[in-house]
Amino acid sequence: MTSASSDRLRTQRPATATSGRPRRHAELAMSRSDFDAIRAFVHDAFGIALSPAKMPLLKMRLRSVVQSRGLANAQEYVAQVLSNPSADAVGELADAITTNHTFFWRESAHFELLVDRLLQEHKTKNKLVPRPLLRIWCAAASTGQEPYTLAAAVRIALGPDLRRWDTGVLATDISARALDAARVGIFTEAEAAPLPDLYRQTMFQDFEGGVRVRDELRKDVTFRRLNLLTPFRFKQSLDIVFCRNVMIYFDEPTKRDLTERIAAALRPGGFLVVGLSESLGSTPPGLRAIAPGVLQKLGGA
Ligand SMILES: C[S@@+](CC[C@H](N)C(=O)[O-])C[C@H]1O[C@@H](n2cnc3c(N)ncnc32)[C@H](O)[C@@H]1O
């Protein structure tokens, strides 16, 4: 996440600490068995695999959660919160442990391929359809940079013909805090800078020294909280799924299972886009690789 976004998110953190408890900036006390209990919970609940090397990071990220609950250490957190967690506690943990790092125009070759090829092919195929459908899912949307770019890409690719289409971008993430920032859609000039001019013009209006996503573009994107480990179902088959830079946090069986479930949600000929550095091992069944990080579901005409 960029510094402006992280500042925005930091301001939303609970800021209370109970008197008599460790000072706010003291390191969180966490034994190896507390760490193991938390990482087992995180793995089961979110699919995120934390290696032992991540213990200092976990201590840092959990410190304010533990303190805001008036607890003294990770042991109390495990015993009192994780032993019988409320939905709120699980959400709070997801916010604390997820890495929401993202930025505009990340791995831009995927957006270029989307506009120049995937959407052009889809347009051609639907030339004679009175109200064609285009369903895109951004499955790890973080603070919004990726789904808003997808919505802009659709507008750029379809041009004035957009009115004829029934389009929509569904943007999901497990972190409610990241999604709250995404919905607001305010970014600094520096954050918007990597985007080509056409995208900037399509996406933003000026806003208090920075930029804000235009109202019409914000309406193109629906944000929802979704844990990729849980079952998902869509009313219509999906044309394109961007699920980038999240599989790196998952172990092999979780990646495989998620890839299969996404493939099942795609229409034949639809596309799954993963991060350029994300290895899915061999090409998953029912898909074929068409470009780095881009897989197509077999069976399309
Ligand atoms: C590093 S960001 C990637 C954002 C964006 N896709 C990109 O490529 O720039 C990973 C995102 O995945 C989300 N995430 C992690 N585990 C998840 C899960 N089990 N279900 C849904 N989202 C998850 C995190 O909250 C985070 O926002």
Would you mind describing this structure in some detail?
The strands form two sheets. This protein has a seven-stranded mixed sheet. Strands 3-5-4 form a three-stranded antiparallel sheet. It is globular. The chain has 301 residues and is an alpha/beta fold. It has helices at residues 3-10, 32-46, 55-68, 74-82, 87-97, 109-125, 145-158, 176-184, 189-192, 197-203, 215-220, 252-265, and strands at 133-138, 166-173, 186-187, 204-207, 210-213, 221-225, 238-243, 266-274, 287-291, 294-297. It has two domains: 3-97, Orthogonal Bundle (Chemotaxis Receptor Methyltransferase Cher, domain 1), CATH 1.10.155.10; 109-297, 3-Layer(aba) Sandwich (Rossmann fold). The longest helix is centred in the middle third of the chain and has 17 residues, at 109-125. Bound molecules: S-adenosylmethionine. Residues 46-48, 98-102, 106, 140, 142, 146, 173-175, 178, 227-229, 244-246, 249, 275 line the site of S-adenosylmethionine.
Kindly summarize this structure in a few lines:
With 301 residues, the chain is of the alpha/beta class.
Features:
301 residues; alpha/beta; Chemotaxis Receptor Methyltransferase Cher, domain 1; Rossmann fold; 2 domains; seven-stranded mixed β-sheet; three-stranded antiparallel β-sheet; 18% strand; disordered N terminus; binds S-adenosylmethionine
Which regions contain 5 or more consecutive residues with pLDDT less than 50? 1-20
CATH superfamily of the largest domain: Vaccinia Virus protein VP39
The CATH topology of the largest domain comes to Rossmann fold
Overall geometry comes to: globular
Approximately how much beta-strand content do the residues carry? 15-25%
- Give the biggest beta sheet: 7 strands, mixed
